[in-house]
Amino acid sequence: MELIALRNLVLALALYSATLAVADPAVPTTAEPAAPPSRIEELETHIAGMQDKLRESAGARKAADQARMEAERRLATSTQTLERLRQELARSEDARAALGEALRTQSQAHLDASAALDEARTDAHRLDQLLRRLPPALGGTLGIDEARAAAATSYRVLVETLQQPARGAGRKIEVAGARTQLQLDQALLAVLTDARGLYRVEENDSLALISRRVYGTEGRWQRLFAGNRHLLDDPDRLTPGMTLILP
């Protein structure tokens, strides 16, 4: 619209100048003639060139506006993509932290399970050792030969403890412990051999005297001797505090 108005203004001025030159008689004949048509055409060509340049400028501005809008659209898209990536990164960090915590929990559970397994193995070993020290009647696996060997070992420990120099209360405790262990081993052997019971030897005891107390006759002392051969080498040598099996 601006280009058309400019063109019309130029044409109007040219026509007005020509009219003044013809109508005013006071104008001397020597005045310059009105602008020839070629001048008008030159102006029109110039105006057309300006119009083309303005159209080109408008097109360039439109293209620039479109490019700016496209850049803004891409920027908005990039911003959205960046925000999405940030959110995904945050979720990945949370997942990594959760995975690390789960791994630590699993590692601790593995350690706890290993400790529990070791403890169970230790308990199983202790149970196995205990079962080996119990007769089948009590749910164990102890055999007669093993029971006799254990009792013989306990008796040797008792004799060695009694032979040690006196050391006060400590020695009494050791002797009492040795006597108790021998009594326990003899009790297990008594269960395996279906013995009548046990007898703890006192001072001045003999197999004949024990036979008379237990069986009512001294003649069964040989039976006592045979039932305790794993402890006794001589029927006349008894150790006070030792425990005998009563067959």
From TrEMBL:
Q: Which domain of life is it from?
A: Bacteria
Q: Which residues form a coiled coil?
A: 68-102
- Write down the InterPro entries for this protein, in alphabetical order: LysM (IPR018392), LysM_dom_sf (IPR036779)
Transmembrane region(s)? none
Q: Which UniProt keywords apply?
A: Coiled coil, Signal
From the UniProt annotation, give the residues forming the signal peptide.
1-23
In Swiss-Prot or TrEMBL terms, this protein is called LysM domain-containing protein
Whose protein is this, by species?
Marichromatium gracile (Chromatium gracile)
